[in-house]
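Subject: Glycosyltransferase 2-like domain-containing protein structure
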Amino acid sequence: MTAAAPTNVCVIIAAKNAADTIGRAIGSALAEPEAAEVVVIDDGSTDGTEAAARAADDGSGRLLVVRFDENRGPAAARNHAIAISQSPLLAVLDADDFFLPGRLRRLLAQDDWDFIADNIAFVDAEQVADIRSTISRFAATPRPLDLIGFINGNISRRGVRRGEIGFLKPLMRRSFLDAHWLRYKEALRLGEDYELYARALVRGARYKIIHSCGYAALVRGNSLSGNHRTIDLKRLYEADREILSEKNLDSAAKAALRRHERHVRSRYELRHFLDLKKEGGIASALVYALSHPAALPAIAGGIVADKTERFRRSRSPAPVALGGAGEVRYLLQGLAAERAE
């Protein structure tokens, strides 16, 4: 007799103005036998997200939909879902994404982890209907991810978009989060996942990656992650500085965190310069740049890179727009993953 699948995972979905995709996300989560709870937080939507979420209920009693009257951000929404759920394992699913069949089973087949993530397939809207037949099958080939590897994997490069491994959506053990007083940092509206996983790794989390693909991310130009504010960049590099204050960091880990902090701070300096130029004219922007000489390399380098962007060929494994090519792109593309026979 085959043992029944354990139902010990809470799937958390923070949603804002996702009426057109939330039903698919919820349906994919409820289709997983291991999902004991699916908690949807409507984060102050102004469309029909809440109604669409409730309409996706399969009658199993596993779906809970909660609405925030005002937008509080994905970190606050996820923290609330953690607080009102009970399952020992937590899975985050974005409202415009969806699980591929069997995802939770494949992740739970692995052992010795506090966080475990699999590959992500980036697809455009036209590919969604045929995704099951077009997705590639990769062998699991599990490997550990340490703090330095994680930090380095989140430093993006020009011409490479949406390739950072902070996009991974791991299963998380509630017991580890509780033991180390870890929750999402609610001041962050950009990089809140990165910040949580980095702090967990600093505290000794066992983070494992498998290369089989169980998560599909819809690629579109108006995603929330692609429309961050300048202040969001500032808060993210300040979060790096807070992590750097941890006492148990060795020199290599500190060096990696400083690289990421400089990377994000450079993006902030350029954006801040351009904001000042837009609001007060070039004179106002130049006054700022000349009074902050440490910011000059980032500003000058960013302007030159922006001006020459069109001459460089994108090397992205998951571009913001797939251009109708019909090709599925994978986040872990280029690593030591082999297609399963």
